[in-house]
Amino acid sequence: MFPLLCRTSGRISLMFFCCLPILTSCTLGPDFKPPEAKLSNQWSEQISTASETSSPAAHDLAQWWKIFHDPQLTSLIERAIDTNLDLRIAESRIRQARAAMTIAGANLGPTVDASASYRRSQTPMSGSDSPGVTTNLYRTGFDAAWELDLFGGIRREVEATGAEMDAATENRRDLLVSLSAEVASSYLNLRSLQQRLVIARANLLAQEHTAELTRQRWDAGFNNKLDMVRAEAQAATTSGQIPLLEAAIRQTIYGLSLLLAGEPATLLAELSPDAALPVAMANVPPGLPSELLRRRPDIRRAEANIHAATARIGVATADLFPSFTITGSLGLQNNTFNSTFNQSSRAWSLGPSVNWALFDMGRIRANIELKKAIQEEELLAYEQTVLTALNEVENALVAASKEDEHHKALAIAVTANRTALKLATTLYVAGENDFLSVLDAQRTLYITEEALAQSSKTLCTNLVALFKSLGGGWEGEENNIDGKSPNA
Predict the structure, then answer these.
(1) What contacts 410, CB < 8 A, 6 or more positions away?
(2) Which helix (H) or strand (E) holds 327?
(3) If DSSP states are collapsed to H, E and C, what string results for 162-220?
(4) Count of structural domains within the chain
(5) For 275, how many CA atoms within 13 A lie in the half-sphere containing its CB?
(6) 348 assigned to some structural domain
(7) Chain segment 325-367, per-residue pLDDT in tens
(8) Alpha carbon distance 345, 347 (integer Å)
(9) Is residue 406 part of a domain?
């Protein structure tokens, strides 16, 4: 009888497993299709002689900061990629997403548990004063279960978690883009502040010299006291700007230290010495608007979020249908340990089970509608992300173009104001002009030199903003999920 049962159950199992690929070929819910965005064929602003349709080279975008030819800037960005805490948090989230995908994928296969137990018990004998019957029970064996993914709910869950891992990867890339841009902008701002401090100190020396000149002329009786007081006031005003610039320099260095996951004073000795503001040695064409869809990590992340939300509709839809599970067990059981492994101690079972939620007050259908609404939200978020990206690029292009015009005009103004100051001073010493024209020329020169220094910084930071808006700074980076940077 036992061999016949085994042969019969074997045939049933064989037939079932032959039909299994057909049974598991059904996948419910909508299939993901990448969203389509209709974009213009060109940008509205041009910033260089390069063709707008030409695409920036991948290596130019991957390490765009090298166009400044500043080894210290390059070192800071590479160290930030190694140590930044936000980036390390993002790497941890990639590992979490990968583990979640592995867990979801494990549900596609069977589970097998091994168990062993021993129990000693005593059963009282009714109507007797004897202590009762003492028995031993030895059990060991395996229990297996396999939930058949007939309607694709588990496969959709694997698909969703895979898309979430893609989103976590793109989030790290987006942080790389933001981090490199923030380090570069802070560094450029630091060098600009140091340059402005040099300008302020130079103007202070000139103004103090002028104040001393008016004091000597006052002592000699060649001018009135008002000229001397005005000169001293202007020198004091310029002197008052210097502590503010020194404080801003310190704070900028502290901010850079934070980006590199260091204490505030970590970079103080390295960055305190004055250095010139680096100048970019190349122009990078922005390429086509459509290229942003593949290049910018935030757009890629938004697309991955749509993918995950779409797959979860299938997960929710599968709950409308029954779930089928095959369970089986194989074990040994006997009252004596020596007899446990005898053939008479063997026990086994095999059989399917069905679980179907027939009435749930509309919970499953409401969950499906919830997942559909989430997908719609992600689609709208994708559209908003694309529009924001286009807006950032256009803003960066127009800012770079107009700041270049502004910088050229300021350079001419500085040259003219230096000439005006020399003439005003010469005429004043010769007694052919009043001292107010000298003060006005000094004030105007300081203002335009200060403005030119800030414009030089703005030219550089506008270029940084353009690279950031184009999504530069992550190409060539490997998926860092082990806490080690490719730069290490």
Answers:
(1) 448, 451, 452, 455
(2) strand 323-334
(3) HHHHHHHHHHHHHHHHHHHHHHHHHHHHHHHHHHHHHHHHHHHHHHHHHHHHHHHHHHH
(4) 1
(5) 16
(6) no
(7) 888 888 877 777 676 677 777 888 888 888 888 888 889 999 9
(8) 7
(9) yes
CATH number for the domain that contains residue 414? 1.20.1600.10
Residue pair 374/313 in contact (Cβ under 8 Å)? The answer is no
Q: pTM here?
A: 0.82
**How many residues in total does the chain contain?**
488
Confidence at residue 56, expressed as pLDDT on a 0 to 100 scale: 57
Virtual torsion, Cα 123, 124, 130, 134, nearest 10 deg: 10
How far apart, in whole angstroms, are the C-alpha atoms of residue 485 and residue 169? 14
- pLDDT, residue 474, reads 79
| Helices 297-318 + 363-429 axis angle, to 10 | 170
Residue 407's domain comprises: 21-109+151-321+363-469
Q: Model confidence over 123-147: pLDDT tens digits?
A: 776 666 666 677 777 788 888 898 8
Give the Cα-Cα-Cα angle 163, 165, 167 (nearest 5 degrees): 70
Report which of residues 482 and 253 the model is more confident about: 253
Instruction: Decide: 211 and 260 in contact? Cβ < 8 Å.
Output: no
Specify the range with the lowest mean pLDDT, choosing from 49-58, 190-199, 434-443: 49-58
Taking only the tens place, the pLDDT of each residue in 70-94 is 999 999 999 999 999 999 999 999 9
What whole-number distance in Å separates Cα of residue 305 and Cα of residue 278?
39
How does pLDDT run across 259-271, given as a tens digit for each residue? Answer: 999 999 999 999 9
Q: Is residue 115 part of a domain?
A: no
- Confirm whether 5 is domain-assigned: no
Q: Which of 244, 268, 273, 274 is nearest to 256 (CA)?
A: 268
What is the C-alpha separation between 441 and 447, in angstroms, rounded? 10
Q: What mean pLDDT do residues 220-225 have?
A: 74
Nearest to 458 by CA among 388, 405, 391, 394: 405
Q: Tell me which amino acid residue 432 is.
A: E
User: Would you tell me how many other CB atoms lie within 10 Å of the CB of residue 130?
Assistant: 7
